[in-house]
Amino acid sequence: MSSESFENLSYEDRTFLPSQTFIDNANAKSDIYKEADTDRLAFWEKQANRLHWNQKWNQVVDWQLPFAKWFIGGKLNASYNCLDRHVIEGRGDRVAFYFEGEPGDTQTITYADLLSKVCKAANALKELGIKQGDRVAIYMPMIPEAAIAMLACARLGAMHSVVFGGFSADSLLSRIQDADASLVITADGGFRKGAPFALKPAVDEALKGETNVKNVLVVKRTGQETKFDTSKDIWWHELVDKQSGKHECEFFDSENGLFILYTSGTTAKPKGVYHTTGGYLTQAAFTHHAVFDLKTEKDIYWCTADIGWITGHSYVVYGPLINGATQLIYEGTPDTPSKGRLFELIEKYKVSILYTAPTLIRTWMKWGDEYPNKSNLSSLRLLGSVGEPINPEAWMWYREVIGKNNCPIVDTWWQTETGAIMISPLPGVTATKPGSAMKALPGISAEVVDDEGKAVGNGRGGYLVLTKPWPSMMRGVWNEPIRYKETYWSRFEGVYFAGDGAKLDKDGAIWLLGRVDDVMNVSGHRISTTEVESALVSHDVIAEAAVVGAKDEMTGQGIVAFVILRGGIESATGDALVKELRDHVAKQIGPIAKPRQIMVVAELPKTRSGKIMRRLLRDVAENRVVGDSTTLADPNVMKLISEGLKTGKSED
Ligand code: WT7
């Protein structure tokens, strides 16, 4: 029996220093860690001064475990910080958003335009009776009005609850009910995979349930035939366009609610993660400045996340707009009309900072290098990753094929609950290692602990915890204070447990190992899914892998792997390939991690935000009926996998 909370199996000795020019020009320099360590609260106060406060705070933090308040007594307006300020200070002509619709339609929106649009929307919302503290559900495609709607709510001190446009009527209804929203903002539909899809019918369906929704404000995006109930439905262009483009905003308390965002729990009832204003904006703005090294005059910044996720909140709307960024937003999917679409957009807009997810990077690897190689990607100078552990091989591919060995990579670890980036390299400081998120940001305290909550020390694996309150931390689970305590603050005394496994390598760099619920127990060794998956992806023929622990009479659990081959590789390489892969894993990280079974599949089951749903694969591996798969991006995937297995068992 091993006594480790998590085995530390993989080893990595490649490191990459930023170039001297990057180091010299970086927004964050190496002394920033010391500055934050010396006086953490003074450090966060300094960051809070990035914002415009109508009234300064009189207390930095009030910490009554597990409830925090930041910048108490301060007053500010989120929308003013994103917009008015830039216009007042002479930056009104700067482009805020280049929008590219999937069909190829475009819009260029300056800060002055955006301010006027947000003011109109805020005036319209006010006319509909929306006021401070109200909740507004936003169910939209990735179009500028989605950001405008969020900012209009914030301007009035109302809270938005953005529900990702890919969610069903049922999910929308439960979120509307839980937050008790009184208004829904939506669109007739949007464009995806070359065709219009409808959104409004899902809202109609949801509102058959019991809610307090009084109006539905509908943006006309596709022009498709849309049922309208004139007793509550209102076209955005009819109500918003006629409003005044001026709106004098009020300044709200630092702890005024800014938004609720539901985590797409795969089984349990979704949690309404609740965020407030001053602390959240402080950390969003600081991290966006320091981690993405934004040079406002020069950079074209592109975060590919949908506005329905926290990444879209913090790194499309609030962080970048506060910092005066010029960004690209794109409505559609990466393979429409071709698998080179995103690369063509990078070339067209001269994108210099790209922030995306490992799922997309691995999909690009699977499609093959010919697509990125067709476009000129030389404008890129910094690459970011978020959402899942990035396998070292995918990291290297990102660096070489997309970044042309010329861009630092920031692998950023954080959560809906943390509100902003917590663990990440600083691009002009850190010598990065492929696959590691490296180190807690200045002002953040993270530790890796064992089952008893004791720090594990270098070279060991365990549980990732956050030991001190941070400005953008969630303030609670909406309406469920007990659930908040139990979920995040009960596993280890006095600290926040993130639910992730992690290890510290011999130099103390942090490696995320995946969710602890997914950890496999093989003959008493607790093995992370991430390390075995990364070992598989390090083989030339593999683009993507998902592993699960399946019941095993001999070893407790056996490792079962599902793999996707890289573009151009014949899939029917059969038993020889399976043997080679098993040996490869044994060689990379040790015989204990050798998969019992390896299956070549065409797709993996993923959530709409791109996370692999290992729970469903466990059902397949244990020959059970596959459980609830309603949150899958593509519901057919599980059928294909199960059918494929019946014909091609590859156990040896
Ligand atoms: C979970 C949070 C934060 C925005 C997107 C996801 C995983 C996130 C990383 C990373 C390894 C990561 C964790 C975390 N995760 N970033 N860089 N390396 N794992 O937000 O949906 O709230 O998910 O995503 O497991 O707990 P989310």
Could you describe the 3D structure shown?
ATP binds at residues 387-389, 411-416, 500, 515, 526. It is an enzyme of class 6 (ligase). It is a single chain. Among the domains are: 111-250, Rossmann fold (3-Layer(aba) Sandwich), CATH 3.40.50.980; 539-644, ANL, C-terminal domain (GMP Synthetase, Chain A, domain 3), CATH 3.30.300.30. The strands form eight sheets. The protein has an eight-stranded mixed beta sheet, sandwiched between helices. The radius of gyration is 24 Å and the shape is globular. The chain has 652 residues and is α/β, with parallel strands linked by helices. The site of 5'-O-[(S)-butoxy(hydroxy)phosphoryl]adenosine has 20 residues, from helix 11, strand 24 and strand 25.
Which residue ranges are poorly predicted, with pLDDT under 50 across at least 5 consecutive positions?
A: 646-652
Using only C-alpha atoms, the radius of gyration works out to: 24 Å
CATH topology of the domain at 111-250: Rossmann fold
Q: List cofactors, ions and other ligands.
A: 5'-O-[(S)-butoxy(hydroxy)phosphoryl]adenosine
How many helices?
A: 20
Question: How would the global form be characterised?
Answer: globular
| CATH top level label of the domain at 111-250 | Alpha Beta
Instruction: Tell me how many strands there are.
Output: 30
What is the residue-mean pLDDT, rounded to a whole number?
94
Q: Could you tell me how far the N terminus lies from the C terminus, measured between alpha carbons in angstroms?
A: 26 Å
As laid out across the biggest beta sheet, the strand order is 12-11-8-6-7-14-15-23
Tell me what the CATH architecture of the domain at 111-250 is: 3-Layer(aba) Sandwich
GO cellular component, one term: cytosol
Cofactor: Mg(2+)
Enzyme class: ligase
Binding site for ATP: 387-389, 411-416, 500, 515, 526
